[in-house]
């Protein structure tokens, strides 16, 4: 933990902050490459990030309510996000709501923005998972492998020993997901939300088997952890979206951000000096009038000669 004056900055929070900055930086580069303007990704992230943090915390508290509302627990701890506990499913769902608000205010299609952000979100997850190392949480079965995670704390039911570092496995998987999405996006020119859907589907595959390795207490249904069922359901939805979107809206968006300002064209006409689109019919009338005036001037000059 690092003290920034009166504010304690824990390793978990530090990893999340770094991840957010990397996601915005990479997303901005991809957005500009798609024809968007610099700064748009950061502007919309101002909406998406807070919503995502709230959603991630809500999902964690609801699915692990016994950690905060059972006997001997302090419900105030539910608000201590810096101590760990964010559910990616809630973070993505609520973050999408915040992004939708930001995109709507800017007149930007949410799927295009999500496609630009997809690899960055995966990289942010890869970085954020290292916060679990600081908190000594999210590990698997015991192992004596060279890269085993050594648990030294005996708090909250932990048993000191060496375990599979499932947080490390998920971090590496997320890096692979980011590389896959970037490659597929360049190779197939994914558009209309398909790059984001590919990120979601490929992340769910890794999360399913990594979740199966974990040994911490979790709610189960039919022999599978709740997060396994969530990963399976979200994977199916993402694949269905990929297939349907490819058939109904093939290709990639030609325009991802409306042009504004002086001298920019909106595709329907030309911009006047005030930056407003002029009527094409008015433009044509002005052209005809100018030709007639020029012709009259030429005829008058010929008569005088």
Automatic annotation (TrEMBL):
Residue span of region Disordered: 254-305
Keywords on record: Cell membrane, Lipoprotein, Membrane, Transferase, Transmembrane, Transmembrane helix
Keyword NADP carried by entry: no
EC number in record: 2.5.1.145
GO terms for cellular component: plasma membrane
Residue stretches of biased makeup (Basic and acidic residues): 292-305
Annotated residues for binding of a 1,2-diacyl-sn-glycero-3-phospho-(1'-sn-glycerol): 129
Subcellular location per the Swiss-Prot or TrEMBL entry: Cell membrane
Topology within the bilayer: Multi-pass membrane protein
A GO BP entry: lipoprotein biosynthetic process
Family: Belongs to the Lgt family.
Protein name per the record: Phosphatidylglycerol--prolipoprotein diacylglyceryl transferase
Natural source organism: Streptomyces silvensis
């Amino acid at each position: 933990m690092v003290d920034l004056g009166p504010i304690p900055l824990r390793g978990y929070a530090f990893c999340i902050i770094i991840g957010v900055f990397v996601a915005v930086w990479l997303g901005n580069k991809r957005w500009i490459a798609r024809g968007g303007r610099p700064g748009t990704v950061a502007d919309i992230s101002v909406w998406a990030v807070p919503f995502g943090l709230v959603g991630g915390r809500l999902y964690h508290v609801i699915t692990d309510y016994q950690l905060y509302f059972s006997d001997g627990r302090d419900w105030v701890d539910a608000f201590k996000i810096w101590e760990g506990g964010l559910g990616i499913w809630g973070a993505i769902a609520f973050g999408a709501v915040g992004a939708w608000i930001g995109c709507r205010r800017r007149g930007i299609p949410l799927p295009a923005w999500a496609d630009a952000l997809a690899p960055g979100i995966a990289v942010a997850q890869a970085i954020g998972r290292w916060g679990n190392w600081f908190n000594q949480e999210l590990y698997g079965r015991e192992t004596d492998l060279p890269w085993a995670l050594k648990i030294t704390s005996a708090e909250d039911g932990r048993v000191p020993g060496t375990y599979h570092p499932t947080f490390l496995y998920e971090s590496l998987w997320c890096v692979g997901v980011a590389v896959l999405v970037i490659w597929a996006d360049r190779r197939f020119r994914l558009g209309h939300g398909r790059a984001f859907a590919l990120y979601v589907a490929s992340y769910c595959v890794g999360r399913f088997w990594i979740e199966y390795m974990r040994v911490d207490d979790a709610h189960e249904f039919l022999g599978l952890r709740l997060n396994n069922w969530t990963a399976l359901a979200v994977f199916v939805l993402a694949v269905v979206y990929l297939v349907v979107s490819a058939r109904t809206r093939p290709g990639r968006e030609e325009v991802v951000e409306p042009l504004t300002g002086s001298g920019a064209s909106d595709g329907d006409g030309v911009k006047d000096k005030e930056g407003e689109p002029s009527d094409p019919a008015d433009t044509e009338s002005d052209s005809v009038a100018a030709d007639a005036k020029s012709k009259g001037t030429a005829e008058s000059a010929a008569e005088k000669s």
